[in-house]
Specification:
The protein is mainly alpha-helical. It has 13 helices and 5 strands.
């Protein structure tokens, strides 16, 4: 429903002229410099490129894909891919971002960080002709990793945890753990307290004897 609403709202702006595209790219650049997020503008740009393929700009598309890649677990990245044709999807730049998305989507965080280390340019964006890093990108990936950890682990070794978080040093890991309410015990990080896992809710059933009798009789008849 969320995606349908976004797609419906971008149709009119996507059919605008060059001035409209310039304004949308300005919104994209502002979201990069101010570390904000505007999915509606991103989709409108990609939709504009669909209607006006001669104005297609790979730097702009890469920036959009990186912004939405960091929005996991939302499906924004995949939604953007739907607006690219097969030729654009197979472009080496887009293909590499799809590979990174595959790692994150399958929670292969170690493989993601290794790929980024191997090709650091894959996380660079070009704004107004200047290449720069996407502010907050790695932090958002780590927040997504923490989100996944919260569902899948009670405790995890520090070695494995550091791998999932991109090689944080001890001080940075301690800060990140405190932010997420984790507690270190020896060489392990406790993600969830045992008390949180075994809390049970007492259910008190108030069944009258007559009601219980009728239930037993009906069960016997069947």
């Amino acid at each position: 429903v969320r995606n349908k609403q976004h797609m419906a709202s971008v149709e009119s702006s996507a059919r605008g002229d060059g001035a409209q595209l310039e304004a949308l790219i300005g919104t994209l650049n502002k979201s990069i410099s101010e570390n904000t997020y505007n999915l509606e503008a991103y989709l409108a740009i990609l939709k504009f490129f669909q209607f006006n393929p001669e104005q297609y700009n790979m730097d702009v598309v890469k920036a959009i894909l990186l912004k939405t890649l960091a929005a996991l677990p939302d499906s924004d990245f995949s939604l953007c891919l739907y607006l690219l044709n097969d030729e654009k999807l197979n472009d080496p730049v887009v293909a590499e971002l799809r590979r990174l998305h595959g790692f994150l989507d399958s929670c292969a965080f170690g493989a993601f960080w290794a790929a980024v280390k191997e090709k650091p340019q894959s996380l660079k964006v070009t704004v107004a002709g200047s290449e720069t890093s996407l502010a907050g990108f790695e932090d958002r990936v780590r927040d997504y990793a923490a989100y996944v950890l919260g569902f899948t682990y009670q405790a995890i070794s520090l070695t494995h945890l550091k791998e999932m978080l991109g090689g944080l040093d001890d001080a940075a890991l301690a800060t990140f753990a405190a932010k997420n309410g984790w507690k270190q015990e020896g060489e392990q990080m406790i993600i969830k307290n045992q008390e949180d896992l075994i809390k049970s809710k007492r259910v008190v059933e108030n069944i009258q004897f007559k009601s219980l009798s009728r239930l037993m009789v009906n069960s016997y008849k069947h």
